């Protein structure tokens, strides 16, 4: 079963800002998927549309087969959201916040109370159950929002930068908690700025930039792509077809220019030796910018998209 | 079939949750919700009813205190039904915990009903409190109990709905005091709370008839004292029209996500 299917999702905000430019995304049931991208890429907008907090401009969304235009109630019952911004009633008690959310989902009171106890305990907030949310630290508020999102035991949990600004120890305990509920069957989608976090938790990664999904693959494959460098070589004579070099991906740019993908750990001496053996000499060489890699560097540096040079 | 029954049960739970939450909020911050109207209305009774009222003499055949008591009760019901929904809904919007409801499967109509119920509860609680205070100053025995109860209840619904619409459009805290100050208060003060419109010149009598609050106050006064400046049927008709149109408008706004969804 597919937990999430997004087709042609587009969002233009009232001010004319086109935040999503027709994205497609699939997430299978049981996945732990990272939605990775620099600030302003459109992650929160996407999540907002899935959770009915933002109206879409065009496109379709199905959550466990329920279309949000036709079957919104069922779609919503399958979803739990931990938003990027704190949206707690700060004057309400921790326990009541979770139980009340359960009530909105139609969970009977006694069951909502049981689950509130269960999740507040697992998230180490049970001792604080009678305190108002205002008195909690930032990390505790995040965990409270996780407990709140779980009270109706959703099949798909979406977390929008849940560990932003949370110290490393708490981050690690949140990771192990998320891994545990994923192992118990909850599909998870998580956005993050921390590459380490995505690598650590997620088997699948979708990379979004400027409202477009530019990569959507298994984590391991994306990491492998990341370690590939593309070299552009000018050769001393014209070729009819790309030289046949086993182990390299080669494309012709023009008759005397080729592009070669090289694993970074492999070194280029070997490539030159192979070319020499075919009687090809390299006149000049440059490194082609790797968009994915550049993006990752930017994500890691946490630079907004606008400050990047054109690639 | 069973799925439908499950849905209905879920909706009842959701509505009950919201109404309980609203009720607890009113009682928890009673110093802000219940005490101020009690104090203001006591002052009205002492100053207008007692001190000044004695000089005024009779109005429509009743002592002035007795005449204004129903009007003051209605005035506090109107202000508090409206004020409760405005501050609760706008507060939830401002702190964004309105999102707790928006992400849940509860339909817009229940979000509407729950908040309106909160406003009605506060309006009626305050109305009851003010009635008890009034009893210290004057005698009130409803002539037409059904009219009394139904008019006060329906009026609370009207203004709770109006408060919700105000809160939906409000973007900043100023926006939730503009309508009460510039629309609600004048309409109430000029709505026959303090006088019978028969005291006014012809022209102003006719102008007053355009004020919906006049009908509600008079219908309520009719329920208690048995006198009214206007026909009671009109009052029910006007209240009914307001409820239907405000409800439809508020529901449309909520469904569209005006002010709460991007
Ligand atoms: N309410 C809004 N009105 C106008 N533009 C918005 C609004 N919210 C977000 N945007 C714009 O949409 C783009 C995507 O934002 P967002 O989805 O928040 O990105 P991310 O979560 O990936 O950082 C950004 O350029 C942002 O400025
Ligand atoms: Mg974001």
Explain this structure.
The complex is a heterodimer of chains A (311) and B (262). In chain A, 33% of the residues lie in helices and 29% in strands. Chain A is an alpha/beta fold. The radius of gyration of chain A is 24 Å and the shape is elongated. Chain B is built from 11 helices and 2 strands; from the N terminus they run αααββαααααααα. Chain B has one domain (2-256). A two-stranded antiparallel sheet of chain B has the order 1-2. Chain B starts with a helix and ends in a 6-residue tail after the last helix. Chain B is elongated. Chain B is mainly α and 262 residues long. Chain A binds chain B through residues 13-14, 48, 51-55, 72-74, 76-77, 79, 81, 83, 85-90, 92, 100-101, 103-109, 148, and chain B through 7, 9-11, 13-14, 16-18, 21, 92, 95-97, 99-107, 257, 261-262. Bound molecules: adenosine-5'-diphosphate and magnesium ion. The site of magnesium ion has 4 residues of chain A, from α1. Magnesium ion binds next to α1 of chain A.
Keywords:
heterodimer; A: 311 residues; alpha/beta; Rossmann fold; Alpha-Beta Plaits; 2 domains; six-stranded mixed beta sheet; four-stranded antiparallel beta sheet; 10 helices; 33% helix; disordered C terminus; B: 262 residues; mainly alpha; 2 strands; 79% helix; 2% strand; elongated; binds adenosine-5'-diphosphate; binds magnesium ion
């Amino acid at each position: 079963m597919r937990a999430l299917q997004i087709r042609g999702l587009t969002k233009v905000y009232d001010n004319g800002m086109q935040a999503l430019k027709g994205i497609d995304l699939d997430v299978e049931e049981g996945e732990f998927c990272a939605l990775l991208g620099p600030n302003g890429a459109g992650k929160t907008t996407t999540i907002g549309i899935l959770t009915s907090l933002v109206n879409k401009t065009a496109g379709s969304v199905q959550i466990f087969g329920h279309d949000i235009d036709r079957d919104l109630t069922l779609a919503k019952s399958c979803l739990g959201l931990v938003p990027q911004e704190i949206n707690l009633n700060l004057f309400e008690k921790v326990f009541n916040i979770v139980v009340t959310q359960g009530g909105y989902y139609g969970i009977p009171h006694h069951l909502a109370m049981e689950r509130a106890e269960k999740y507040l305990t697992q998230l180490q907030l049970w001792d604080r159950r009678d305190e108002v949310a205002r008195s909690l630290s930032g990390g505790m508020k995040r965990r409270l929002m996780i407990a709140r999102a779980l009270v109706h035991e959703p099949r798909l949990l979406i977390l929008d930068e849940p560990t932003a600004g949370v110290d490393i120890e708490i981050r690690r305990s949140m990771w192990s908690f998320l891994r545990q509920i994923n192992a118990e069957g909850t599909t998870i989608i998580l956005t993050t700025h921390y590459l380490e976090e995505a690598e650590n938790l997620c088997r699948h990664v979708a990379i979004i930039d400027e409202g477009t999904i530019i990569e959507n693959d298994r984590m391991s494959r994306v990491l492998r792509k990341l370690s590939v460098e593309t070299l552009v070589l000018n050769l001393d004579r014209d070729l009819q077809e790309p030289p046949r070099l086993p182990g390299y991906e080669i494309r012709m740019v023009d008759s005397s220019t080729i592009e070669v993908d090289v694993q970074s750990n492999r070194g280029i001496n070997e490539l030159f030796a192979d070319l020499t053996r075919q009687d090809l000499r390299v006149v000049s060489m440059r490194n082609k910018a790797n968009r994915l890699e550049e993006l990752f560097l930017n994500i890691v540096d946490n630079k907004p998209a606008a400050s990047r040079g054109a690639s | 079939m069973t799925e439908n029954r499950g849905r209905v049960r879920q909706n009842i739970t959701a509505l009950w949750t919201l109404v309980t939450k609203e009720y607890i909020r009113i009682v928890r911050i009673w110093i802000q919700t219940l005490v101020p109207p009690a104090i203001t209305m006591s002052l009205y009774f002492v100053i207008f009813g007692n001190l000044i009222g004695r000089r005024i003499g009779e109005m429509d055949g009743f002592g002035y205190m007795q005449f204004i008591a129903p009007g003051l009760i209605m005035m506090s019901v109107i202000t508090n039904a409206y004020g409760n929904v405005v501050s609760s809904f706008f507060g939830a919007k401002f702190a964004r915990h309105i999102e707790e409801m928006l992400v849940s499967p509860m339909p817009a109509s229940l979000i509407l009903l729950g908040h309106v119920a909160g406003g009605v509860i506060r309006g009626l609680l305050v109305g009851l409190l003010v009635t008890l205070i009034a009893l210290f100053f004057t005698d009130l025995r409803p002539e037409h109990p059904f009219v009394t109860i139904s008019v006060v209840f329906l009026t609370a619904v009207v203004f709770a709905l109006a408060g919700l619409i105000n809160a939906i459009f409000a973007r900043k805290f100023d926006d939730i005091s503009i309508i009460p100050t510039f629309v609600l208060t004048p309409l109430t003060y000029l709505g026959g709370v303090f006088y019978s419109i028969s005291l006014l010149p012809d022209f102003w009598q006719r102008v007053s008839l355009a004020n919906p609050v006049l009908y509600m106050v008079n219908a309520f006064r009719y329920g208690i004292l048995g006198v009214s400046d206007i026909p009671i049927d009109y009052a029910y008709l006007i209240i009914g029209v307001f409820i239907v149109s405000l409800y439809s408008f508020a529901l449309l706004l909520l469904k569209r996500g005006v002010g709460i969804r991007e």
